[in-house]
Design goal:
START-like_dom_sf, 3 helices, alpha+beta, Alpha-D-Glucose-1,6-Bisphosphate, Chain A, domain 4, 34% strand, 25% helix, SRPBCC domain-containing protein
């Protein structure tokens, strides 16, 4: 079964990186401007031009690891996948964070989309890194402002 895995070193303390992964302000700071939560505490990620939100249930969120499971049917190739963010202090500098990202659980027949998804994740994680290091809000996906007459 295919799995995407990437490791990044981030010049920010672990609690800053954790907040970027685990809070509304954090997630909208680097990923998408449209993040909500439903009554079951499932995170809803809306993206411009996408017909319905991605539905990710937060399974774990502590100092060492954040895990989400896709509980929606959209996008179809993400159905049943999971996303894991493992956080550790960098060995040479405990004020910096080593992040191991993994996205797995791809069902047979969906692996052809993995390279495209991996490329998008790489771009997103660079945004996450920049946000954690600088605090500069720069989400990758931005909803266009609505026009009023």
């Amino acid at each position: 079964m295919a799995e995407i895995a990437m490791q990044f070193d981030i010049a920010a303390p672990r609690d800053v990186v954790l907040a970027a992964l685990n809070t509304h302000d954090g997630l909208t700071g680097w990923w998408t401007t449209e993040v909500d939560r439903d009554e079951d505490e499932v995170l809803l990620f809306d993206f411009p031009g996408v017909p319905e939100p991605f539905r990710l249930r937060r399974e774990r969120a502590d100092r060492d690891r954040v895990v989400w499971t896709n509980v929606g049917t959209f996008p179809p190739h993400w159905a049943g996948t999971w996303i894991s963010w493992e956080l550790a202090d960098q060995p040479a500098d405990p004020g910096r964070t080593r992040l191991l990202f993994r996205h797995g659980g791809w069902q047979p027949g969906t692996e052809e989309g993995v390279p495209m998804v991996a490329g998008t994740w790489a771009e997103l994680i660079v945004r996450l890194k920049d946000y954690a290091q600088s605090g500069k809000v720069q989400p990758y996906f931005v909803k266009a402002p609505e026009h009023t007459a």
